[in-house]
Amino acid sequence: MNVEQISIFLENKSGRIDEVTSTLSEAGVNIRALSLADTSDFGVLRLIVNDSRKAKDALKEKGFTVSETEVLAVEVADRPGGLHSILNVLKQHDINVEYMYAFVQQSGNNAIMIFRFENVDEAAKILTDNGVSIVDGHTLYKM
Amino acid sequence: MIFDIEYETMPREALEAIQLRRLQATVERAYATVPFYRNGFESAGIKPGDIKTLDDLKHLPFTTKQDLRDNYPFGMFAVPMDNVVRIHASSGTTGKPTVVGYTARDINTWASLMARSLAAGGATRGDIVHNAFGYGLFTGGLGVHYGAEALGASVIPVSGGNTKRQIVIMRDFGPTILTATPSYILHLSEVAEEMGVSFADLKFKFGIFGAEPWSEKMREELERKLHLTAVDIYGLSEVMGPGVSMECHEAKKGLHVFEDHFIPEIIDPVSGETLPYGQAGELVFTSITKEAFPVIRYRTRDITSLNPEPCICGRTHVRMNRVSGRTDDMLIIRGVNVFPSQIESVLMEMEGVEPHYQLVVDRVDNLDILTVNVEVGEHIFSDEVKQLQRLERRISKNIKDYLAVSAQVKLVEPKTITRSEGKAVRVIDNREI
User: Fold this and answer.
1) What integer pLDDT is reported at residue B354 of this predicted model?
2) How close B383 comes to chain A (CA, Å)?
3) Where is pLDDT greater, at B311 or B403?
4) Which CATH number fits domain B1-327: 3.30.450.20, 3.40.50.12780, 3.40.50.2300, 2.60.40.10?
5) What is the tens place of the pLDDT at every residue in B173-218?
6) Where in chain A is CATH 3.30.2130.10?
């Protein structure tokens, strides 16, 4: 049920993201969601794509440092307090969110947020137990 | 195996007698045929006849890289071009290249010294040598090539680059001896891993690595990753090329200088005074058999020391310790001497950190700022920025603890550190002093 995310190390210089997108475009990989975390001299680009394996191979071939991480795609009610109620569950169970970002598509009337936890399985269980729905990888890649 | 038993194990007394005779002949010939040497001797008030003992060598003037450049391209040749059969040149990344020439006899001498070197490094007639040193103006490729043929081994002249094809050749041809620069081989081993080729399944027994300084830590890493015995080879085109000195695989503790062809000295790089055995300083070579391009007291800028202790391999030639740095690579950062090799040791100590690094020095508001660029390989990459920042701080702290110098650590993408002829460019000094 977990979602595969690939992360790419980038130096903070012009044209690097462009290299990534052109590599993925040539490989016929579709980007489903992305987030960029950066410091003054480097950044980490995180992507959810329709074919992680293919994306990873193509990027490695071009000399990028790439890693894979499991993240959770969580449905968030699209109304005031929607995200808060989820974070509240996590807080009560003392689960730390390493980072999160929004997924472009909606699932029905709900928004989707991508969460990175230290322990994905534990977080998934707690969220499910508390009535939060989680979108599994296969569904997400095709959305 | 010792390739040339007679000369490599010659008793010191006999060896020194040969050295003196050959030195006198070289000095006489250089004086007679190369204006640079004649002028230098005359300014120093010395005649070739004044060289009566090996100890008199210290009265002769030094030759520097700049002297070779000033005589670009052929001014230092001691024979007419009719007799020169080969020309090589150094890369010239820091100025004009230096050009060296060889007579047919020089090429034979070089081949036999390289055969000695390969044998000292574990090679025999039955071996297949995968020679990944660059072929061309650089002496590495052809030097090893001729040596392997002189030894009677089979040589694969694969040269540098085209890494994936090299790995396929390694897998299919089953070479048993690997010759290359250590930084290139570390890169190659990463590519092999990506291709799913394990060095454990290859047939390599010995790796003969050189053309750039490397550390004892790097030896451990190379031996672990490549499943072979790693030995050090040394040489420079100005003196001949690879095969000036070679580590024996039996002791793996310093490189035997082929003293029947080259006389090594260690000097204080500042005062120019000759230092005794055991003391570290700048390595200086005098060639005593070369015809086309004799060098007298050539300052290599390499920092090392000489070890006269007898060796378990049976060779009587003095050993030079692993080159620990270069006088021109030595950086003085806010008064502290820093050698790239020290930074390398710090990085190698750290789990998962690849020894691909580059030092950049800038001067900002009259203060030296050292930046260490470290390539991010898969083993240390994390999707979390804070982990990467923690790593930067840890490297920086270790450098500070070990070298007493503050450094900014900057993570960079793999393969961004400039490599020329397979040699990594380790230092960029942007200071204008």
Assistant:
1) 77
2) 6
3) B311
4) 3.40.50.12780
5) 999 999 999 888 988 998 999 999 999 999 999 999 998 878 888 8
6) 3-69
CATH topology of domain A3-69: VC0802-like (3.30.2130)
Contact A63 B378 (CB under 8 A): no
What is the rounded average pLDDT of the residues A7-13?
Answer: 90
Which numeric CATH code is attached to A71-135? 3.30.70.260
Confidence of residue B94 (pLDDT cuts 50, 70, 90): low
pLDDT at B320 over 60: yes
**CB–CB contacts below 8 A, A to B:** 56
Q: Do B384 and A44 touch (CB under 8 A)?
A: yes
In chain A, residues under CATH classification 3.30.70.260 are: 71-135
Q: Which residues contact A103 (CB under 8 A, 6 or more apart)?
A: A32, A33, A48, A73, A111, A112, A113, A114, A140, A143
